[in-house]
Amino acid sequence: MGQIIAACCLPFLLNGELFAVATAVTHPLDVLKVRLQTQLVGQRGPLVGMAEIFEKIVEVEGARGLYLGLMPALTRSVLYGGLRLGLYEPCKYFCDLMFGSTNFFIKIASGAVSGALATALTNPMEVLKVRLQMNSKRGMIREMRKISSDEGFKALWKGVGPAMARASALTASQLATYDESKQVLLRWKKLEEGFHLHLISSCIAGTVGTLVTAPLDMIKTRLMLQNGTNGNRTYRNGYHCAYQVVLTEGLGALYKGGFATFARLGPQTTITFLVCEKLRELADFGILFTKMAVKNKFKLFALVGIAFCVVSLLVHLLLANYSARDLIQYRPTVDKFYQVGQNFRYRKLWGSIQSLEALQPYANPRNTYPVPGESNGFIYAKIYGGFDHIKPSICDLVAISRLLNATLVIPEIQESLRSKGISSIFKSFSYVYNEEQFIAALSNDVVIVKSLPYDLRQERRKNKYPTFSIRYLASPSFYVREVLPKLKQSKVVGLLIGDGGCLESVLPPDMEEFQRLRCRVAYHALQFRSEIQVLGNLIVERLRASGRPYLAFHSGLARDTLAFHGCAELFQVGIFLRAMGYPSDTIIYLAGAEVFGGQRILVPLRAMYTNLVDRSSLCSKAELSKLLGPESALLSELPMAPPQKTKEQLIEEWNRAGPRPRPLPPPPARPFYQHEKVGWYGWVAESDVEPDPSAIDLRMQSHRLIWNALDYYVSVEADAFFPGFHSDGSSWPDFASLVIGHRLYQMASARTFRPDRRTMVKLLDSIRDNMYHPKHNWTLLVRQHLNNSLGIGGLIMGSQASKPRSFLSHPLPECSCRVSRASEAQRLVKGPNGEVLYGGEDRCPEWMVNGLSFAQRETRDAKDEGDDLPEEDSEMEAQEDSSDVSRTEFNRAIEQDEEMDPDD
């Protein structure tokens, strides 16, 4: 009996092992094939080749990216290969007994049956392999649990129909073609049984198998990768998938990744059949070995178990050692019940604001706009301050250069110039921004040069040119009266800007073109250098890798801000977000280069929202250091320890110490640690005056420019943005206001919260004694205020509070246009002094209106999918257009809440 079992199991084990070996060798080609098959889904266009995909994977994901999904691929190979090849001969044998023949069609039928059965049993491993190959950061077990919890256990058999059809066609074409071609070559070419015959036959089988199965393989991959339930899937079944692919992408799309498929399937087929033929020659030896081993089954099983354990341990240690080099620890925790009412929750928490969808970015000149003429001279400038001061200052400089008809020299960012030892490959401006893009984008507005001419540069070093220290929000008349005469006289003037702006935020109505010029500078010309943009895109992709939106949050907890304007607690933001209905597993990106107080003050907020992440948890140290470039090492400024004394010196001091007994010397002072001399707490207990920044402090300040630029990019691209400590009452722009203005210009209908601090403080004071379990009416008040801040009410409040100090925080109505129909009455809101708070935008040009209407038709069906969903509590209704809650309503709600308190 043991001999019969061994004779049946040996082909299965040998075929499975040889198929696993072939899979391990060709797995990178399989990854390339899947990536090629999923490009330009639903679109026509030029396709990226296999070489470009290979370069992108190696550059972004490293060499490890070519082996994503290897474990489920090997597991599937052992089972699939053993069943597919092991069942072919028995099927052909039974067909021979039943029909008395083994012609070519019998071979095709035998291969089709064995391939279909093997695929039906191993389809879950194929689904896991394809999902992991699309750059998933989860392991095989976690991916299986995620699919089962989010999409149901049946989702593991997605695409099983096309997969069985592909496997049947592949097995039938491969095995039947191999078997038949070998017989034909033996009869016609008189080839002998051996290596050359097997090689030619396997190559023919691989080519035929690729041509037959490439379309089915592409359809199978598309079906396995789509997420969601039956109601929101792109493809209903294999036939629908094929129809949609041919309709939207063309007939050639069925062979996307065809070359990669052949490059993988050809060698795999050749290796499989060559090894299979060699194993057949050794079959007698294998049966003999099995007969000997069956005599002592316990030893055989123990030997096999020990061998598998050793191999598994070695593979595990190898992968752990390799993957720990640049480990990124962030993995979002997903609520299993998040999918319940997902469409409804998405609209209420992440959907666009309908009342603002008519606003579109449009900063082009409206009237006649001449190109720069003969220049009156050169303007060079030094900009002091951090990231939130640099951007408004550059925009004002360009507007001033246009006003004075001057040539602008690329401004010097002192925050990077003062640092010692930053990378030599960057200059001051190019440390953050792209110089070439800045010059080219403004060629029709202002003439910009990288440096002064040589003779003027020499004169500048001798301080022969007038220099102006510009106060914050200087008027245009100041430049016309004071600066322009000096510019015409000396041909060069210098400006020192230190407060985050050098021109009035609100300009007269006849200077609207200068406001649009500011927008073109801020949102089109000032682009971050390519390294920052690439890493920013990578962070956004990692945040959305789970298929869910994310919220960007800027705490605003900087030392200089809190020193003059009090403090704020981050858990209060968590209470507001929870009142809005954001679940505890919401992905929140913490922006800002500095969080005063460190990770300690983030503990309460992280306890409420476990997926609170920042750049350090989404990027490896190598990726972050690449942004900084090569930097020279800095000498430590800690006090040096005294030199160690030798034994002879200690004895000599002891002898000179005098008569005994004598008092013991004081104990040696404890050495200073590095963290005790870094930052404000290194001097605050020793001096009343802050010392000059050290070399390390200056370098860290320049690094903050990079980190703020990276966080700015991620915050602008976020699905929602919530400012923390914002609008502190100072006259300076801050990080959050710049992000709010950029999002308002680029996508006005995106969810950008603009909370009023006075209202929020009143709300918090009303629940001070029961903050973590607020009453129901309090939650309604919070939602009403925050929903109102998303829409027109928030824009009116922002126009009153932010625009007088910083134009870039509220670039309306000068830099926007409206696509509403002429029949729609535009709401115009004016302030007490006659200034326009909302409305007054120009109508968008026809080319923009037509393009937007076409895009809206494309997405209309997707928006209407959730209209039939049952509504939840009416408290979730958005109230973008509702007015602010008055003080009377606020007090009445609190009193009513006290009457209805169930705890009384």
Which features characterize this protein?
6-stranded parallel β-sheet, transferase, 54% helix, disordered C terminus, mainly alpha, 3 domains, 32 helices, Rossmann fold, globular
Summed up:
Helices cover 54% and strands 6% of the residues.
Describe the structure.
This protein is mainly α and 904 residues long. The protein has three domains: 2-294, Mitochondrial carrier domain (Mitochondrial carrier fold, Alpha/alpha barrel); 364-525, Rossmann fold (3-Layer(aba) Sandwich), CATH 3.40.50; 547-627 and 697-899, no CATH class. It is 54% helix and 6% strand. It has 32 helices and 16 strands. Strands 2, 3, 4, 5, 6 and 7 form a six-stranded parallel β-sheet that branches. Strands 10-9-8-11-12 form a five-stranded parallel β-sheet. β6 (467-470), α17 and β7 form a beta-alpha-beta unit. α3 (70-99) runs antiparallel to α4 (104-133) and α29 (776-790) runs antiparallel to α32 (887-899). The protein starts with a helix and ends in a 5-residue tail after the last helix.
Structural class: mainly alpha
CATH superfamily of the largest domain: Mitochondrial carrier domain
Outline the low-pLDDT stretches. Answer: 322-327, 336-341, 861-904
As a whole number of angstroms, the C-alpha radius of gyration is 35 Å
Number of strands: 16
CATH fold descriptor of the largest domain: Mitochondrial carrier fold
The biggest sheet, with number of strands, parallel, antiparallel or mixed sense and barrel status, is: 6 strands, parallel
Distance between the termini: 79 Å
CATH-level-2 architecture of the largest domain: Alpha/alpha barrel
